[in-house]
Design goal:
The structure is a single chain. The chain has 977 residues and is mostly beta strands. It contains 4 helices and 67 strands. The strands form 14 sheets. Strands 1, 4, 5, 7, 12, 13, 14 and 18 form an 8-stranded antiparallel sheet that branches. It is globular and about 90 Å long. The relative contact order is 0.08. Belongs to the glycosyl hydrolase 32 family. It is an enzyme of class 3 (hydrolase). Its EC number is 3.2.1.26. This is beta-fructofuranosidase.
Length: 977
Amino acid sequence: MRRRTALRVVSAAVGGAVAPLSFAPALAAAGGRSGPQQPTARWDFDERTGTVALEAVSGSATPVDYVFNNARYKPDSDPVRRRGVRGRALYFDGYSTVVTAEGPGKLDIAGGMTVDVWIAPYAYEHGIDGKPQALVNQHDPGARTGFLLGLRRFGQIVFQLGFGTDLIEVKGALDRPAAKGRWNHVAATYDPAAHQLRLYLDGRLIGTATTPDKAPEPAPGEPLLIGRHNGPTLLNGEFHANMYMGLMDSLVIRPGALDDATAQREHAEKVAALPGHRVPRPDLAPHRTRFDGDRHRPQFHMLPPWHWMNEPHAPVYFKGKYHIFYQHDPLGPFWGQIHWGHAVSTDMVHWRDLPVALAPAADSVGPDGIWSGSACVDGDRGPVLFFTGGDDRLPYRQRTGLAVSTYQADGDTDLPTWTMRSEPVTEAPANLPAGPGTAWAENFRDPFVWEEDGVWYQLVGSGIVDYDGAQVTRKHGGTALLYTARRPEGPWTYRGPLHWNDLATTPEPGEVWELPVLLPLPGPRGRRTGKHILLICPWWEGFNPNAVKHTYYWIGTFDKREHRFVPDHDEPREFDFGEHFTGPSGFVTPDGRSVVFSITQDRRTEQQHAQSGWAHNAGMPVSLSLRRDGTLAVEPIAEAAGLRGTRLAHIRQTSVAEANRRLARVSGDLLDISAVIEPRGARTITLAVRADADGTEETLLTYDTAERRFLIDRSRSSLDPDVRKGVHGGSVDLDEGRLTLRVLLDRSMLEAYVNGTNSITSRVYPTLEDATGLRLTSEGGSARVVSLDVWRMNGAYDTPTAPATYDPPRPTDVDALPNHDFATGDLTGWAVVSGTTFSDANVTTRTDWGWGGPFYQAETEGDPAGHHLWGFNPAGGGDGATGVLRSTTVVLGGDGVIDLLVSGGNDPDRLYAAAVRADDGKVLAKATGRSTEQYRRVVFDLSAHIGERIYIEVVDRADGGWGHINVADVNVPVRRS
């Protein structure tokens, strides 16, 4: 599974240079102070290609780090460039793009300094750990030395300068931020004569700060970083926070100070030198071509143009267009800084990206996040959005808010612009009565709103608890709180819990309900039934192995008079048999269908998210209705057929064997498969998808007629040990003796619908290029294929691009390190050299560590239980214990590339896993953890040491917090004797 490419030599050639904006020296008028002088460092970012940026003063090529310089799942591609203020500009993607230089040239900051840059931000960071998004910095915050120019929350511009004893910061005015979506000319200066820091935006002073009567101290031991903080916070063990996102052009560092008159004049001169004497509009739109060739990224499902999404929500139809919004972090493929992404469609399957609809704002209900909600049309003013506003300053942090579009003013049915109202819609006060207890005020989110007969209804997800003062003493279960109003702005009247689950008897729906949805259920041919479906996602306060995996529902009656939901069945039913379908949101279409959108969790590690550059996608919208027997009918919306392209198979009335023979000519990873099969005594009927010729990789969809169960088996879906696998399924009856199957296959995305009643949503990540085949088999009996059709699918956004990158095969002429994956369940093949921290008790199959989340240890065919070495052994002293563990000594063979999973504490000197040369004890390569328990794959390229005797050593000499190291799936190519 691993890419074993050696380090490449990157050419330092740059091209496409454009004449830079001029920076003529100028002398300040006041006091004879020295004005800005010739630059000591300048980056114009005018390169059109390549992975370096030219520093113009020294002529050196500074490297531009970017996630796809050496891509994992797609072909390599260069950092993104766009048109700049003049010439080109570099696009910083918010989590991986950074330029690294040795320093700002021959700059003596004691004599004054000026930093000058053009920026066009795309998104603001939350301000993680109180650190700014760094535009450019060379500083050591702990030592209070060096300088930083950056952005704080909501785009506030700041400049920091260290004086050893003090780190002085000047902040720009809150009402003069670096605005998103436009070019901002930012200049920061240190004036030693005036003992002052000053900030300028577009030539105008926006902030000052007084400095000590002493010289500032540089930080020459730190690299000069453009786009990333010198001391960034590490998120989830994988992502660097405090990074800039947006375009940057013409960064200049100069000696000398800038005064007000010179700043204004220089800005005016720069603008006057531009074509038309106008600053151009920046092109900040995220382009999907960034991911061309990604072998796992879906092509005909809705997903954001880049980075992280969670549940799509607030579907609404208005003036011939369907709108969908989604939880989105524009700064990277990780959770945080939650915005509302926005897409529009005329058919719910072909989508067009629109600008971010809602973003955290200082003067809004949601300064700390705009969480999930819903939409509803309010007459002539069009749709209104109800959202969850996060505000960490409040005791309960969550409330619901309202946003309206500018449609009435601009008539734009794309609804690209929204305004959030500053007042909340609903809030959860303390001791709000709710059935057997009170509403859990700290969990009050995900409003679902609809209007009916002049009454507006709002459901808010929450839980029911008992309080002892401010302490929760008992959790009763999840609920949806119901409110009513006569208009969207309210006032809203609380009506109590719509329904709730008793944890003591029905624990599956969790302690809190998220994303409650209540929809009418039409019957056959769309007739009214008077029944509704209530869908919810369970949430638990602590770690739960079923979290973010399931959606439950009840069918019943909505009693408007009593404001209660009366279920037809006490036990909740699971909506989807997989572990990926979550986050439902629904609406009623103009033709009366109840349609539900969902998120398909990708179940990838944080490292895989970082390497791929995106996380999660939406499921295919599904239509819900009530069958004649009172059960739920589920099927993809009819519009999904509009994505079909060439028909690859059209099979009628034949045996399974003959159908399978004809399927041998069919392959693909973008398919719509529709089949009707009569079992006729067959014990099982199996459709294999994403299968290679010999079944090394394949995913099996099986119907077991004896057990009446529909299953997905992903045990062999991928050779990648870091991919989640397993078998999932549920009970399904045949439909009048027939098996009706619909499968939508979209790269890593798989949705299977059986008999129109149940679905399995899953993910598969094959590594082999030819894992695109189909096979149909049966056991026993004489099953007959009534019909089987296969279509190639077109893209939801544009023409799909073919996958272009696959992993090279592992060496086959080698042996494995003895017990390399601890599959024996103990330390067989390993020796405890010293200490007490490592023992057989450390080898475990635990999938979580009990206080936070999954390990994501390897899952291989040889060790499906997933054994791994957890260095934290409570019985052996926990973090306080120390010791050394060593593998068998072997001769390195094959390609000399070793890979292994490592997690635990971050201490490269005292806590690490290493490859050691046995003859002299030299450590050839080592890796520590990142203060997280989730594993990440590390690779040691030891091709220069092939033929040498080596061993793997796991070292724990740390005894404080996070004083443990975890290891799994150690792959060493061992030369055969």
